[in-house]
User: What shape does this take?
Amino acid sequence: MKTENLPKWNLADLYDGVESREYTALKQELIELTDRFAEEARNGSLRNTYPAGWLQGCLELYNRLGDSYEELDAFVSMWYTTSTTDQAALAELNSLEELGLGVQAAEVSFKNSVAEIADRLPEIFKAKPALAEYRFFLEEQLFFQQHQMSEKEESLAADLMRSGGNAWGRLFQAVSSTAAAEWEELGGNTTGRRDEPSEPGLVGAGGKKTVTELRGMAFDPDRSVRHKAWLKELEAVEQVEIPLAAAMNGVKGSTVSLSRRRGYEGVLEKSVQQARISRATLDALIGVMEESLPVFREYLSGKARLLGLERLSFYDIFAPVTAQASSKLRGEGADYAASMPERWSYSAARDFILTHFRSFSAELADFAASAFEKGWIDAQPRAGKVGGAYCITLPLTGETRVMCNFSGNFGDVKTIAHELGHAYHHHVLRDAPHIFRQYPMTLAETASIFAESVVIDGALQAAEPQEKLPIVEKLLQDSTQVIVDILSRFKFERAVLERREQGELSPEELKRLMLEAQTATYGDALNPDELHPYMWAVKPHYYSPELAFYNFPYAFGQLFGLGLYNRYVQEGSAFLPVYRDVLLSTGKGSAVEVTRAAGFDIESPEFWRSGIAAIKERVDEFLKLLPGT
Ligand SMILES: [Zn+2]
Assistant: This one.
């Protein structure tokens, strides 16, 4: 597809570069706010004599400081991710990182001061009722204060993180993004699938292919291409397994040492707190994920039948199912009246999204329409721009931007709807102070999954029977990642952290633990001789020292988003205000409290089972749509 007409951000509308008067003034303001907050956070005399006034002053400063930092960081991140080779962008990111150290140090002092007045909080809330809204935030500060080293130790740890834990994370990025294997084109014209030679990453006349390019080939309709790409990927990673294992050991070593020094029972205790859930919630979620595995294995066996295989191999998980192919298999001939395009133009995608958003809520549709109109979406793939998609907010400018790489698949339409869901979440929270806009990872995907569901449901309703199979299959492909693969990652990470307490792990041990985790989750649905022992070398989520177990929040988000969407299906427009209230409160309490207000009990397995039941319905539908059934 032609991509040059796709929209690109205009960054100069925001700030005319980092040398501009507006940008430098804001950066200067951030520095001053940080200094004032640091001073105020320690101000013992004020804290002891007039705690309510002290606390109010600190929170005001912290909110302003947070907004300034978020604004600057968003602008520079947008710039860097759309021009990664620009050294100036990278330098500015580093400069902001440096300013972040000052903020972190001030936060440590603030927590210590809050701990000093902890038993006076009830009287403070009485004197200034507006501060009672910060109850959860302050309790969270107190929890982390109990797991905080001395101010000097924390400052040293933050400083060393740049050359220690985070440096290992950067080594992982550098090594994994350049690892490559020699690629010779397969002989013979297998399926005539090369009708779009402009597709990036899929075609090349030999030469080296990076691991990212090879992973992209997992979506190729030709099994021999997928098989070869999988072999080549394993070969490419094997060559760099030593530095990658070193990076894993370095990151997990930092995590384990800091966790122990800060007095956590284990690494998971901190992750549960960061996710703002309870241990009971995590246990209920993981337990239901475990018991749901047979549902997904049934889908995977069905997919194997659809592809004419006895069993899937790891490289078949992402094999595409097209309407064309499924209608052929069903003996309906290759020609059918399509109600949905196989390739989407950007304007068709926009219209489709807006139509289905409007069927849910006018507010969501109006917001999304204005995002399209104002050019808040950067959709054009181009050299130097990162892959994937994200949504980012500039709180002071009052804009929320979306970055994606539009190539004309239905998956891209879904991605834009997903990111606009995030953007709408920010929009609902736009007038809230900084602290109340900081929601946990577990609730971060609520609005995006919901928006995505609105569009997918619309697509399913609009689809002709033979078009349904690919859509349902893609949905199940995604759910399998979010439940089955995420569970394998959770098990793997837990095992690695346990071992890491005793010492470093060799690449062989890491491979063995990964295979064990995949066998325990995918079970007999995958060929045991063709799994993926190096998945730990291709997923960046393992390499963040301060954010361990960056996996279960995805499963939480998907199942919670589905739970909300089911409520909407049952209750119709009466659910709209409930939904809006959930989004408004995501930054104000624990996930347990926020979801309880909407009538959900996430500590009970029953709640999670209802999300799985929705997926099970899709699996049944998928199996029914299969040819010969
Ligand atoms: Zn998302």
